[in-house]
Amino acid sequence: MDSINQMEINTLEADIACYATAVYHEVNNRTLEEKLGVINVIRNRVKSGRWGSDVCSVVYASGQFIGVTDESHKKIDKKRIFKQSIINSSMKRRLQRKLKKQRLHLIQLKLSSLLLHQLQPLLL
């Protein structure tokens, strides 16, 4: 995965966290339509640029989403999300390599077993 795609993924993860935070504090127990309404308000505000240039800056803009900006709620830490995303990507790659090695090992075992089965009559 190249750095541009990784940056896009990190931005997407931060955006999702900020959307979720705003929806939770604004319309947590309401209908899906109301939740989508909050998301659309955020999208329109990002497009206008008056409250910020990205989802998180709009969500945390002063006076925009009161439940989000009150003192009892911690702000989304974009750096932490970015770091976690890199860690998750690294772990995923390591797991994929490990699974590939395990599959290769399993194939080798199956081939060895098949070969042994074929050679057994010759060894007796």
SS-derived structural category? mainly alpha
Shape: elongated
Number of strands: 0
- Count of alpha and pi helical runs: 5
Strand content: under 5%
Low-confidence stretches: none
Q: How far apart lie the N and C ends?
A: 53 Å
Topology:
Layout: H1 3-27, H2 32-48, H3 55-59, H4 66-69, H5 78-123
Please tell me about this protein's structure.
This protein has 124 residues and is mainly α. The protein has a domain at 3-76. It has 5 helices and no strands. The protein has helices at 3-27, 32-48, 55-59, 66-69, 78-123. Helix 1 crosses helix 2 and helix 1 (3-27) packs across helix 5. The model has no long low-confidence stretch (mean pLDDT 76).
Brief description of this entry?
This protein is mainly α. It is 78% helix and 0% strand. It is built from 5 helices and no strands.
Main traits of this protein?
5 helices, mainly alpha, 78% helix, 124 residues, single chain
